[in-house]
Amino acid sequence: MLRSRISCAFPPRRWMSYFSAEFNKMANEGPAKFTATSNSITNIDLDLFVNPDNKPMDLVERLAKLRKQKQCTLVPLLPGIVIKQLLDSTNPQEAISVLRNPTQYGLFIDQFSGCFLMDFLLQHGNAVEAAQVAALLVERGLCNNELIEALALQSFYAYAKDFKPFEPSQDKQPDPKVSDVEKVRVKFIRNYPKDASENTEEYKLGRSMVKIGSGEGSLKEPKQNIALLGYVISGQLAEAASFLAKHNQVFDKETLIAAQGAVESLKLEGSDDLLKSLQESLEKSPKSNAIQGQLESIVKSSAVKFEPKLLADYGEAYQQWAQKFEEAVKNQLEAQSLEERRDHIQKTLSDLEAKRQNLWFFENKDDIDIQIYKKKVYYPKRWFGKKKNPKAVDTFYVPPNISHNT
């Protein structure tokens, strides 16, 4: 009997979270002290503020519409809850795009939501999105404890280990028309053209990797390993070569192998010397410990140490947010009830005015008859030079040929 087998290739994923069950329960259901009461809010319903007609809208459209309103600052948004809703309703890349545009959607990432998101994405094999979240935390200065730094390093290494260049976007802006071009006479050129390579996704992630690698504190050697990968991914080959020569004894073999793979994938000019230096460092490297296992152990130990404080801070922030959100809902309901009453009164007045216009003739019939009776009509005595004869002769009529003297 023949049997057919289907082999499916899935991205590598972790089946266990770095955090405890209490952390995941709080991220999914809210703090335990609010779960058993009516004050627990696990989903933010924005229809009351942006969609009173219940039109079909997704969460991203609701966030964008809320941000455009004048009272957007009166509606608080807790990143932990909104990010969980985004992951449930959209894909991870859509959630990353929302977090990258806080001025458009009004959602600002914090430490709790960043840790939960990096752990969730690493657990489900989304290393690129986890690195993008880590880059957001680095750029906004939120990597200020060992736990967040370790998770960010783990995310960056998972991305660099299986590095693949991003595909260039095919959407090109149309060339401006001749009528749209504004000619201005200038004396000096002030706006210098920017390098297009600085706007690539690889450069942004590599810059964040270099930034976290140059920081002080603990985890010095893992940071230096990530910094080398950041120099390579961002295309800074000269800086990568000098950094490799300066800290030659620090780099792990897996890091050097990942750097070689990144250089070969990018296919940059002048990369032969760097590849040769990486190969020489790989042959002379005394480091045999796997950096991936080292980072995982650091993350687990940091989670045990820093997780209680992270949970306490999130519980306090959740309590403050819940009070502000309930107050915003209450104010919106009061304003909506007043607006509905005002609209109802305005509609009633307009209906009465329409009925009054319909009954205008019957109410003023007597006045119209009196005006018609009082109206005097004058007829001309002559018509085209001829004398007009009266239509009827009454008793008081005197012919013109008879006078009073006759």
Description:
The structure is a single chain. The protein is an all-alpha fold and 406 residues long. It contains 18 helices and two strands. It has helices at residues 21-29, 32-35, 47-50, 59-68, 79-89, 92-100, 102-105, 111-123, 127-139, 146-161, 201-213, 220-233, 237-246, 253-266, 272-284, 291-358, 360-363, 365-374, and strands spanning 382-383, 386-387. Strands 1-2 form a two-stranded antiparallel ribbon. Helix 13 runs parallel beside helix 15 (272-284). It is elongated and about 145 Å long.
Going across the major beta sheet, what is the strand order? 1-2
The share of residues in extended strands comes to under 5%
Largest sheet: 2 strands, antiparallel
Radius of gyration: 40 Å
Span from first to last CA?
148 Å
Quickly count the helices.
Answer: 18
Which structural class fits the helix and strand makeup? mainly alpha
In round numbers, the mean pLDDT is 80
What percent of the residues sit in helical stretches (DSSP H or I)? 55-70%
Secondary-structure element order, N to C: HHHHHHHHHHHHHHHHHHEE
Spell out the blueprint of helices and strands.
Layout: H1 21-29, H2 32-35, H3 47-50, H4 59-68, H5 79-89, H6 92-100, H7 102-105, H8 111-123, H9 127-139, H10 146-161, H11 201-213, H12 220-233, H13 237-246, H14 253-266, H15 272-284, H16 291-358, H17 360-363, H18 365-374, E1 382-383, E2 386-387
Antiparallel strand pairs: 1-2
Helix pairs in contact: 5-8, 6-9, 8-9, 8-10, 9-10, 9-11, 10-12, 10-16, 11-12, 12-13, 12-14, 13-15, 14-15
